[in-house]
Amino acid sequence: MTIVTVFRSRLRDGVEGDYTPLAEAMSRIASSMEGFIDQKHYVAPDGERVTIVRFLDAASHGAWARHPEHRLAQRRGRDEFYSWFDISVAEESHGRTFSIE
User: Fold this and answer.
1) Which of 96 and 52 is assigned the larger pLDDT?
2) What CATH number is given to the structural domain containing 46?
3) Which of 8, 4, 28 lies closest to 85 in space, CA to CA?
4) What percent of the chain has pLDDT over 70?
5) Model pTM?
């Protein structure tokens, strides 16, 4: 069953320059992991950031959650970068894709 993580956050003022390279590195690591499906990043006009990440199953999602570099990045996020964040993790109960391409 696909595992979907929705990570919503707001950055502290003045941290974008240090945050961006770390976020890009975490995206590269996540996308290289077994079971990774996809990820998308969005920034709303009011500054809220949203990252949606999908993994094939709970085991691959758990491996990402426990990845040593990801754990270090999480700590830096709390200590240095985020003024607020909210994480939701769920099993996808239904999915459907449509495309005319």
Assistant:
1) 52
2) 3.30.70.100
3) 8
4) 100
5) 0.90
